[in-house]
Design a protein that fits this description.
EC number (chains A, B): 2.7.1.100
Structural class of chain A: alpha+beta
Organism (chains A, B): Antarcticirhabdus aurantiaca
Oligomer: homodimer
Number of strands of chain A: 12
Number of domains of chain A: 2
Keywords (chains A, B): Kinase, Transferase
CATH superfamily of the largest domain in chain A: Aminoglycoside phosphotransferase (APH), C-terminal lobe
Distance between the termini of chain A: 60 Å
Radius of gyration of chain A: 22 Å
Protein name (chains A, B): S-methyl-5-thioribose kinase
Largest sheet of chain A: 5 strands, antiparallel
CATH topology of the largest domain in chain A: Aminoglycoside 3'-phosphotransferase, Chain: A, domain 2
Largest interface: A-B, 72 and 73 residues
Order of helices and strands of chain A: HHEEEEEHEEEHHHHHHEEEEHHHHHHH
Number of helices of chain A: 16
């Protein structure tokens, strides 16, 4: 029966805070602020005067402080009403902190693998988290050719759990729409992706940059490539319209932290301030894109690249395999939502139909992921924001050679995504383009 | 530049009313209520005691009153906190009236072709509109074999204007997300479609009904048809996730009113209470589905069916042609949104790319429309809500024969939608199945 009625629709539980009392922090004001949060003060121990505060200078958007006390340390992240890297000329809403916390707390509940939240001060746009002191950014570890064997499977599983459990496969349509409507407020961050990933690299735009003059001709060719442009706009349409699940929205290797102590590894996903309801393939594609970028960058970082490159392609397939395996388990055990309802497949002989539906679903998702991977690769070479994997390569001619091969794969993934169809086929294309298997 | 920031996201302009003071009307209380609305009283003229009120008994969900005064007449539609046809055992939120008004006012602004709104009393869930006294429901006119030549092109144009202008093709992503979030509150009505169109006909369910015993075997076969079930769930996924535009949500031939006075015809679209952000193809498919149902029903309504059947298939292609023509005009002249931004196609030699993108967009939309058309046909034969076109056919064996042919087309449209690809090909399939061209 339907009976989902009642006089009033349920109100949203979460509401964007009022920022009337917002005050931006600075290094010298952090200790006093954190002292007001008992759970944070307890974690740090001692007195605020004893706490060491330093700003971590590597965020593009926000200020991040590491605070160390006698008993422990914390990480405090505060949004400013503008983009940190650019300044007040590029305003950005404080509400991104609210959405980051909303996403972080859902990810913690649904999949773990994120930093522990100690305190969220909504009106101050401030999140205080555990400090991952022994962790490093995965991107940097990859450039340094360090291998964390558990990262790929843990991230595949993380994506399966967050994406499945925030979708119509697990939630009722009403719950899912309420969540999607909440995150629809995070438009300013989505707009950054819409512009920087799906638009600017394909037109003349003052924010674009690339290795010049080496790639001048390539950039012009991309702007005149009608096939690429059309395929990118199909993907942008999905990004704008396809509210499948709560995606992290910025899941590159710089949003992953890894650590190793003896045999024990730890992996965490950070920085979900771009979170919104979008296509599931966007997160999977973002991660694959950055593994491919690291793959093509290896040739620029000295001899001995081949072994790391082979390892990186294996990680690409392991991400997908772990994702698909966990997604399939959830499909079989947690399909309680309005989509593909289990009750449709209960009659005799219909179990195969449910498995066939799963296969078709994953096949479509894999194609989406390949397309988004290509989109995310190209923007890192032709758009505003680049990656250190490639940026640190000298001389420019060597960097441009690596970038040219990466762009060739990016185009194939976007334009031929349906023909390539699988992550392992995409890895083979990467190997062919890099000459490794040629 | 991006600069879409600011301290706070903009609030929603529209808010669902508080229904604390809500009072259901009855025929004897309508005049007193309407007397309180000056614009309504002026339209009716005279004194409330002079007004004739009658309830129009043909709505499934709401109470509709026609009120006639010395100077003119109005139509008053009030939602009740349950489904009118079933009673209090099936609750349904009053907020559907708010969403109906929100959709109606947007349609009026963007495309016209809807009744004039005289008064919206939000807390009373009451919309007072012009009375379309000389109009008839298009479905009934089609069964009576009356031909309104302007209906198909006007409806094609109406859909193009409402769908294009509420999408990311015309709105900024932020505006579109605000609208989508607003209509995401209309979940209870969407849930009716999710269950009755995409789910129940494909499983054993107490609300299902069909011409029995004639179609008992057919209904069982559909429930065991894995291919059909999978394709229907793909379409349901689009219905749940693909927030492309503000769709009417129930655009069948019973939601269209037509009139003819000499050579002058008038066409209006009514009852958008199912409105929500969904796939553009859903509205187009709903209209096509009901033209096809009328087509297959004609053989059950006495001799002389062939001419009307041929005319009906022509209307199907005219709906699509008018839609595609107007959509193409808007693509060329009103593409101001974040999707397929015009600025991408401004460089020399890129005009063809813009047209190629339009063709690909329409081709995909046409496939979606065919799939949704098939879904909407089958539910009218195997699900809860049927159509008078078929229901009035006697004896049941004749009705079942018509319904069997309609179901055969429904399955083709759902399962083979990508191969059929065009509305004119679908019309040819209909003709083959009905034996007209065999």
């Amino acid at each position: 029966m339907i009976h989902s009625g009642g006089l009033q629709p349920e109100p949203l539980v979460d509401v964007v805070p009022d920022y009337g009392a917002y005050e931006p922090l600075a290094v010298e004001r952090v200790a006093a602020r954190l002292a007001a949060y008992p759970e944070v003060a307890a974690r740090l121990g001692g007195r605020p005067e004893d706490w060491q505060v330093r700003e971590v200078g590597d965020g593009n958007l926000n200020f991040v402080y590491i605070v160390e006390g006698p008993a422990g340390s914390v990480c405090a992240k505060q949004a400013l009403p503008f983009v940190r890297l650019v300044g007040e000329s590029w305003p950005l809403p404080l509400s991104r902190s609210f959405f980051e916390h909303a996403a972080l707390s859902r990810q913690a509940r649904l999949a773990g693998t994120v930093p522990q939240i100690l305190r969220f001060d909504g009106p101050q746009a401030l999140i205080v988290m555990e400090n991952l002191g022994t962790h490093v950014i995965w991107r940097k570890a990859l450039t340094a050719r360090e291998r964390h064997e558990t990262a790929a499977p843990i991230l595949g599983r993380f994506m399966a759990e967050t994406l499945f459990r925030t979708s119509d496969l697990n939630l009722s349509a009403a719950e899912k729409k309420r969540e999607a409507a909440l995150f629809a407020g995070n438009t300013a961050l989505a707009k950054i992706t819409e512009d920087l990933v799906f638009t600017d690299p394909y037109r003349v735009h003052p924010l674009n940059r690339w290795t010049s003059p080496e790639l001048d001709g390539t950039a012009a060719k991309v702007r005149g490539d009608a096939e690429w442009k059309l395929a990118i706009q199909e993907l942008k349409w999905q990004f704008l319209c396809s509210a499948e699940a709560l995606v992290h929205g910025d899941l590159h290797t710089g949003s992953v932290m890894v650590s190793k102590a003896g045999d024990a590894e730890d992996v965490r996903v950070i920085d979900p301030e771009f979170a919104f309801y979008g296509p599931m393939g966007f997160d999977v594609g973002a991660l694959l894109a950055n593994l491919f970028l690291s793959y093509f960058a290896q040739d620029g970082h000295g001899p001995g690249a081949e072994a790391m490159k082979a390892w990186l392609l294996v990680q690409g397939t392991r991400v997908w395999d772990a994702f698909a395996a966990r997604f399939s388990e959830l499909w079989r055990t947690e399909r309680r939502g309005d989509a593909y309802p289990a009750s449709l497949f209960e009659e005799q002989g219909q179990a195969d139909a449910s498995e066939a539906a799963l296969e078709a679903f994953l096949a479509r998702l894999q194609v989406d992921a390949l397309g988004f991977a290509g989109a995310k690769m190209a923007r890192r070479i032709l758009g505003l924001a680049h990656v250190s994997d490639l940026e640190t390569i000298e001389p420019p001619a060597l960097r441009a050679a690596c970038e040219t091969r990466a762009l060739a794969l990016a185009r194939q993934l976007v334009v031929e995504r349906r023909a390539i169809a699988t992550v392992s086929a995409a890895c083979r294309r990467a190997a062919i383009l890099s000459g490794a298997d040629a």
